[in-house]
Amino acid sequence: MLDSIKTEAKQHMGRCLDDLKRNLSQIRTGKASPALLDGIQAEAYGQKMPINQLATLASPEPRLLTITPFDASQIGAIEKAILASDLGINPTNDGTIIRLPIPPLNEERRKEFVKMAKQRGEEAKVAIRGARRDANDQLKKAQSDGDITEDEKHRGENEIQKLTDDHVKKVDEILEAKEKEIMEV
Question: Up-side HSE of residue 13: CA atoms within 13 Å toward CB?
Protein backbone atom coordinates (compact mmCIF):
# COMPACT_ATOMS: atom_id res chain seq x y z
CA MET A 1 0.00 0.00 0.00
CA LEU A 2 2.73 2.41 1.08
CA ASP A 3 4.91 1.58 -1.93
CA SER A 4 2.09 2.11 -4.43
CA ILE A 5 1.28 5.55 -2.99
CA LYS A 6 4.97 6.50 -3.10
CA THR A 7 5.37 5.19 -6.67
CA GLU A 8 2.29 7.08 -7.85
CA ALA A 9 3.55 10.32 -6.25
CA LYS A 10 7.00 9.84 -7.80
CA GLN A 11 5.48 9.34 -11.26
CA HIS A 12 3.29 12.42 -10.88
CA MET A 13 6.27 14.54 -9.80
CA GLY A 14 8.31 13.16 -12.70
CA ARG A 15 5.58 14.22 -15.14
CA CYS A 16 5.69 17.72 -13.60
CA LEU A 17 9.44 17.89 -14.36
CA ASP A 18 8.86 16.67 -17.94
CA ASP A 19 6.17 19.33 -18.45
CA LEU A 20 8.52 22.01 -17.13
CA LYS A 21 11.30 20.95 -19.52
CA ARG A 22 8.88 21.00 -22.44
CA ASN A 23 7.55 24.43 -21.43
CA LEU A 24 11.04 25.87 -21.02
CA SER A 25 12.12 24.56 -24.43
CA GLN A 26 9.54 26.92 -25.94
CA ILE A 27 11.19 29.99 -24.41
CA ARG A 28 13.65 31.30 -26.94
CA THR A 29 17.24 31.95 -26.03
CA GLY A 30 18.51 33.79 -29.08
CA LYS A 31 19.41 30.53 -30.81
CA ALA A 32 17.19 29.00 -33.47
CA SER A 33 15.53 25.80 -32.28
CA PRO A 34 12.53 24.02 -33.81
CA ALA A 35 11.26 23.55 -30.23
CA LEU A 36 10.34 27.26 -30.27
CA LEU A 37 7.38 26.35 -32.46
CA ASP A 38 6.12 23.41 -30.37
CA GLY A 39 3.24 25.27 -28.74
CA ILE A 40 2.01 26.97 -31.91
CA GLN A 41 -0.98 25.57 -33.78
CA ALA A 42 -2.20 26.63 -37.21
CA GLU A 43 -5.72 26.42 -38.60
CA ALA A 44 -5.53 23.69 -41.25
CA TYR A 45 -8.07 21.40 -42.82
CA GLY A 46 -10.81 22.81 -40.59
CA GLN A 47 -9.01 22.28 -37.28
CA LYS A 48 -6.04 23.50 -35.26
CA MET A 49 -2.90 21.44 -35.81
CA PRO A 50 0.65 21.75 -34.46
CA ILE A 51 3.01 23.28 -37.02
CA ASN A 52 5.37 20.30 -36.81
CA GLN A 53 2.54 18.13 -38.20
CA LEU A 54 2.03 20.49 -41.14
CA ALA A 55 5.62 21.13 -42.14
CA THR A 56 9.27 20.17 -41.88
CA LEU A 57 11.13 22.36 -39.37
CA ALA A 58 14.85 22.96 -39.72
CA SER A 59 17.57 25.18 -38.30
CA PRO A 60 20.13 25.59 -41.10
CA GLU A 61 21.89 28.46 -39.30
CA PRO A 62 22.23 29.43 -35.61
CA ARG A 63 19.85 32.37 -36.07
CA LEU A 64 17.43 31.01 -38.70
CA LEU A 65 14.53 28.55 -38.70
CA THR A 66 12.98 27.29 -41.90
CA ILE A 67 9.50 25.84 -42.23
CA THR A 68 8.68 23.83 -45.34
CA PRO A 69 4.96 22.95 -45.46
CA PHE A 70 4.00 19.50 -46.71
CA ASP A 71 1.09 21.17 -48.51
CA ALA A 72 2.00 24.56 -50.04
CA SER A 73 -1.59 25.77 -49.59
CA GLN A 74 -1.02 25.82 -45.80
CA ILE A 75 1.82 28.37 -45.93
CA GLY A 76 -0.53 31.29 -45.16
CA ALA A 77 -2.14 29.55 -42.18
CA ILE A 78 1.27 28.67 -40.71
CA GLU A 79 2.55 32.23 -41.19
CA LYS A 80 -0.62 33.63 -39.59
CA ALA A 81 -0.23 31.32 -36.57
CA ILE A 82 3.38 32.43 -36.06
CA LEU A 83 2.40 36.10 -36.25
CA ALA A 84 -0.41 35.51 -33.71
CA SER A 85 1.96 33.78 -31.26
CA ASP A 86 3.97 35.61 -28.59
CA LEU A 87 7.33 34.76 -30.20
CA GLY A 88 7.87 38.29 -31.46
CA ILE A 89 9.37 37.02 -34.75
CA ASN A 90 8.26 38.17 -38.20
CA PRO A 91 8.20 35.32 -40.73
CA THR A 92 9.02 35.82 -44.40
CA ASN A 93 7.90 33.44 -47.11
CA ASP A 94 8.76 32.95 -50.76
CA GLY A 95 5.71 30.83 -51.59
CA THR A 96 7.31 27.48 -50.75
CA ILE A 97 9.28 28.03 -47.55
CA ILE A 98 8.87 30.23 -44.48
CA ARG A 99 12.00 31.73 -42.95
CA LEU A 100 12.10 32.85 -39.32
CA PRO A 101 15.14 35.03 -38.63
CA ILE A 102 15.80 34.88 -34.88
CA PRO A 103 16.88 38.35 -33.77
CA PRO A 104 19.47 38.61 -31.01
CA LEU A 105 17.86 39.27 -27.64
CA ASN A 106 18.39 42.56 -25.89
CA GLU A 107 18.94 42.69 -22.12
CA GLU A 108 15.34 43.69 -21.35
CA ARG A 109 13.87 40.85 -23.43
CA ARG A 110 16.26 38.36 -21.81
CA LYS A 111 15.05 39.42 -18.37
CA GLU A 112 11.43 39.00 -19.50
CA PHE A 113 12.22 35.45 -20.62
CA VAL A 114 13.97 34.67 -17.32
CA LYS A 115 10.90 35.96 -15.49
CA MET A 116 8.66 33.77 -17.68
CA ALA A 117 10.89 30.74 -16.99
CA LYS A 118 10.75 31.35 -13.24
CA GLN A 119 6.97 31.60 -13.41
CA ARG A 120 6.77 28.24 -15.17
CA GLY A 121 9.17 26.83 -12.58
CA GLU A 122 6.92 28.04 -9.78
CA GLU A 123 3.93 26.40 -11.50
CA ALA A 124 5.89 23.13 -11.59
CA LYS A 125 6.69 23.43 -7.88
CA VAL A 126 3.00 24.00 -7.11
CA ALA A 127 2.11 20.88 -9.12
CA ILE A 128 4.77 18.86 -7.24
CA ARG A 129 3.39 20.06 -3.91
CA GLY A 130 -0.08 19.08 -5.13
CA ALA A 131 1.21 15.55 -5.76
CA ARG A 132 2.61 15.53 -2.21
CA ARG A 133 -0.76 16.64 -0.80
CA ASP A 134 -2.59 13.92 -2.76
CA ALA A 135 -0.16 11.26 -1.52
CA ASN A 136 -0.49 12.44 2.09
CA ASP A 137 -4.30 12.37 1.76
CA GLN A 138 -4.08 8.78 0.51
CA LEU A 139 -1.87 7.89 3.49
CA LYS A 140 -4.38 9.42 5.93
CA LYS A 141 -7.24 7.55 4.28
CA ALA A 142 -5.28 4.28 4.37
CA GLN A 143 -4.62 4.77 8.09
CA SER A 144 -8.24 5.61 8.86
CA ASP A 145 -9.34 2.53 6.88
CA GLY A 146 -6.95 0.44 8.97
CA ASP A 147 -4.74 -0.56 6.00
CA ILE A 148 -1.59 0.95 7.54
CA THR A 149 -0.47 1.86 11.06
CA GLU A 150 0.21 5.38 12.32
CA ASP A 151 3.97 4.69 12.23
CA GLU A 152 3.74 3.58 8.60
CA LYS A 153 1.75 6.73 7.80
CA HIS A 154 4.45 8.95 9.37
CA ARG A 155 7.23 7.05 7.60
CA GLY A 156 5.30 7.39 4.33
CA GLU A 157 4.82 11.14 4.88
CA ASN A 158 8.56 11.53 5.51
CA GLU A 159 9.40 9.61 2.32
CA ILE A 160 6.91 11.66 0.29
CA GLN A 161 8.42 14.87 1.72
CA LYS A 162 11.91 13.70 0.72
CA LEU A 163 10.62 12.99 -2.81
CA THR A 164 9.06 16.45 -2.91
CA ASP A 165 12.28 18.13 -1.76
CA ASP A 166 14.30 16.21 -4.39
CA HIS A 167 11.94 17.20 -7.20
CA VAL A 168 11.79 20.86 -6.12
CA LYS A 169 15.60 20.87 -6.09
CA LYS A 170 15.58 19.47 -9.66
CA VAL A 171 13.19 22.25 -10.72
CA ASP A 172 15.64 24.81 -9.30
CA GLU A 173 18.54 23.17 -11.19
CA ILE A 174 16.59 23.15 -14.46
CA LEU A 175 15.64 26.81 -13.98
CA GLU A 176 19.21 27.79 -13.17
CA ALA A 177 20.47 26.12 -16.36
CA LYS A 178 17.74 27.79 -18.45
CA GLU A 179 18.45 31.20 -16.92
CA LYS A 180 22.15 30.80 -17.73
CA GLU A 181 21.22 29.82 -21.31
CA ILE A 182 18.88 32.81 -21.73
CA MET A 183 21.34 35.36 -20.30
CA GLU A 184 24.25 34.03 -22.38
CA VAL A 185 25.16 36.60 -25.04
Answer: 27
